[in-house]
Each structure stands twice: as structure tokens, then as C-alpha cells.
Design a protein that fits this description.
With 398 residues, the protein is α/β, with parallel strands linked by helices. It has helices at residues 2-5, 10-20, 30-46, 95-113, 133-146, 158-175, 181-192, 198-210, 226-237, 296-306, 324-330, 340-344, 375-397; strands at residues 50-57, 64-72, 79-85, 121-126, 242-248, 274-275, 287-291, 315-319, 349-353.
Length: 398
């Protein structure tokens, strides 16, 4: 195994992010979104993988979206999945979210395909992990109609920028608690409403109305995670067997500075075994491994490989002893990526992350650029991913 993981090339990781950095959004830049999908597919083909583009439409838009797959082995047998997402927010170049994860997924695919590897592995980059297209298009149209934003998606006044930033911050804080989504949005509105213009009030009222039917559990596949939710539903229809999922998301930001690391509310310290983590100093130089009740053994395996003498990757294992429904209610921040549709169906899946906004000040901003990334850190995450796939394959085949 050590000979295999030593084949991970940090320069290749860098070149992948360099190639795909840029806003990849179905409204703002659909061309870049499609170019990135094609880039991922072409890389899979270079490695000799069988490829597939799973296309689908979403109610409320006429666009065709696609999940990109590359796989090795017999696709009729139980599989291990390594996943990422390739879309970004509407104003972020997405070097970390989630260019870093795409790079690691592609390099894992290259390394494993170069070996005489007998496993059934599927690499998938999902689209539409970010805000669902119907909501994104509706919000944009309403904001343009009211003069809230201009054609370049910029707020037309400082007052609007300030008030909506405060509103969204209140929403984020509210979602960390166990209140229904519509109540969270309504309470956030109450926080700012006395200082809003009529147009700002109308815009927020529109967003609340369009989200009034969304619950914490139904948000998966509706508010976001649309591509992965679609993939899981189709996989279940054909009774596809999945042994485990390693979902990579925002894995490239690491810092040695003190007081840079935070955790979601309500995290019980008993759920957080760690390795080489400087918890008291709150230093964000570790990878977070997040598992649910059904993914404990998979999380244990990944963490074991982080300790490999060749890797030595510090980790914090969020070993959550609940199923999807309880996590969605109490720890909403932990269902924000593409592992969640798998958790929803009781399929073992991990979220591998640098903790995103709980560490990085650049998350979902224009400053999410390649110069902020730690590629030696990404290399270690890639190596741990490959090592876990190899061991899981042995267990599966054994």
C-alpha cells in the first residue's frame, strides 16, 4: 500500500485546481460549469476508466445537468464511491470549494488505475451541490425585478449589502439550532425588518414564501445537494449495492495560526476522538472525518489510515451516534454536502472536510483562490483516501 500512496503527485493536484478554478454556476457561468464537467470526464478517460455522464433536468428550469462518473471493475457488483462536487456558488472561483476535492478525487483515480487493482470503484463528481437551480433562478429574478442586484449579481446599494449579510448570518445561526427552517427564516427577518427598505422587505418575504414547504430533512435534494440526491435515487431504483462512500469537500485549507478553528454548536466532546489535534489552541491544521451511526466502521478505517507512517495526517473524527433524521434536526451543519443523500438511505458515507467556514475566512467568497490552498495537506488527504479504498476493497473481497 505504501508504494501506491507514494505515487500521489502534488504537482498534479495543483494543476487540476489551476485548470478548473473559476465560477462554475448554472446561471452566472454555465459554460465554465460544462467545461469543468468535460475536464473531469476527459481525465477519467486518460486513466482508462469507463465513464458516464448522468443527465437530468430539474423542475423550474429548462437546463440539462449532469453528474460525471468514472469507474473501474464490474459496475454490476458492490462498489466503493469516492465523490466530490464541481459546481460553485454564484460569485466564488471555488479553488477549495470544491476544486481541492476534485483534484484529490482525480489523483486517487489516476493512482489506483495505474495499479493492478481488482476493486469496484466509482468516482463521481456531482453537480448542484450548492443552492438548487429553481431557488437560485427565482431569487435572482426577484432581486433583479426589485433592483436589489444588478446584472453582474452585485448589490446595488451598501445598505442592501449590509442588511442582507446580517439577515443571512441570522439564518445560518438559526439553522444551527433545532427550529424548523421556515421559522429560522422568519426569525431572521424579524431581526432586520425595522431597518429594511420596502424592496428589501419584499425580497426577503419572497424567499421565505418559496421555502415555506422545506423541512430540515426535505432540504436535501431541494435546497441543495440536487445532483447527489438524484444519483442516489437512481441507484436505489436499480438496486445498486454500495459498500461505502468517501465524500471529499473543501479539503485544502490548513493553518498553523491559533484561534482559527471553530466547531458547530452542540458537538459533544465524547464524539470527537482525534490525532495530533491542538484543540485548546484551536489550530485548524487537521482534516475532519464525519460519520453517522451507519458509518462508524468506515470512519474508523479512514482514521486508521491517517496514522499511516507515510501520511501522518492530523484528524478530528466527528463520530456522530445518530441517524440522518436526528442529525438533520440537531446538527444541520453536518448535512451540508453530498454524503447526506447516502445517510438518508442508511448507506455508510463519510464527509472528509477541512471544516469549510468553521476554519476558512474565504469560504463562499471571491477570495477562494488557489493561492490560499495547502497542497501538501491535500496530498495527505488524497493518500488517506487511496489507502482507505484499498483496505475497504480487501475487506469487501475477503
Amino acid at each position: 500500500m505504501n508504494n501506491t500512496i507514494q505515487k500521489v503527485d502534488v504537482e498534479r493536484l495543483y494543476q487540476h485546481v489551476l485548470s478548473i478554478e473559476g465560477v462554475k454556476h448554472h446561471i452566472v457561468d454555465p459554460q465554465k460549469l460544462n467545461e469543468t464537467a468535460n475536464y473531469i470526464s476527459s481525465e477519467f478517460k486518460k486513466y482508462g476508466l469507463k465513464t458516464n455522464q448522468q443527465t437530468f433536468k430539474v423542475e423550474g428550469t429548462d437546463m440539462v445537468f449532469k453528474n460525471i462518473e468514472g469507474y473501474m471493475g464490474d459496475d454490476s457488483k458492490p462498489e466503493i464511491l469516492v465523490t466530490s462536487h464541481y459546481d460553485t456558488g454564484d460569485d466564488s472561483p471555488g479553488a477549495n470549494d470544491s476544486g481541492s476535492a476534485i483534484a484529490a478525487m482525480l489523483e486517487a483515480a489516476r493512482v489506483l488505475s495505474s495499479e493492478n487493482f481488482s476493486g469496484n470503484i466509482r468516482f463521481i463528481s456531482f453537480t448542484l451541490e450548492e443552492l438548487g437551480p429553481a431557488f437560485a433562478q427565482g431569487d435572482r429574478n426577484k432581486a433583479l425585478e426589485l433592483g436589489i442586484i444588478d446584472e453582474n449579481h452585485r448589490y446595488t446599494s451598501y445598505h442592501t449589502q449590509k442588511m442582507l449579510k446580517k439577515f443571512y448570518s441570522s439564518v445560518t445561526l438559526g439553522l444551527a439550532k433545532s427550529k424548523p427552517i421556515v421559522d429560522v427564516w422568519q426569525k431572521a427577518f424579524e431581526v432586520v425588518k425595522d431597518n429594511l427598505t420596502d424592496s428589501e422587505k419584499e425580497f426577503i418575504a419572497y424567499m421565505i414564501k418559496t421555502r415555506s414547504h422545506i423541512t430540515r430533512t426535505s432540504s436535501v435534494g431541494k435546497l441543495g445537494l440536487v445532483g447527489s440526491d438524484y444519483w442516489v435515487k437512481k441507484a436505489l431504483e436499480v438496486d445498486k449495492k454500495i459498500k461505502g462512500v468517501i465524500n471529499l469537500v473543501t479539503i485544502g485549507y490548513s493553518t498553523k495560526r491559533k484561534n482559527t478553528q471553530f466547531l458547530p454548536p452542540l458537538m459533544n466532546p465524547l464524539w470527537l476522538p482525534s490525532y495530533k489535534v491542538k484543540a485548546r489552541k484551536r489550530i485548524g491544521d487537521f482534516i475532519a472525518v464525519v460519520s453517522d451511526k451507519n458509518s462508524k466502521e468506515l470512519g474508523k478505517l479512514f482514521c486508521k489510515n491517517c496514522k499511516n507512517e507515510t501520511i501522518k495526517l492530523p484528524y478530528l473524527w466527528a463520530r456522530i451516534p445518530f441517524n440522518f433524521e436526528k442529525i438533520a434536526k440537531w446538527l444541520y451543519d453536518l448535512i451540508r454536502s453530498d454524503h447526506s443523500p447516502f445517510w438518508k438511505e442508511n448507506i455508510p458515507a463519510l464527509m472528509i472536510t477541512d471544516t469549510a467556514n468553521f476554519r476558512s475566512p474565504y469560504h463562499h467568497t471571491k477570495a477562494d483562490t488557489i493561492d490560499k490552498l495547502d497542497f501538501d495537506f491535500i496530498k495527505k488527504v488524497t493518500q488517506a483516501t487511496i489507502a482507505t479504498v484499498i483496505e475497504l476493497t480487501k475487506i469487501t473481497n475477503g
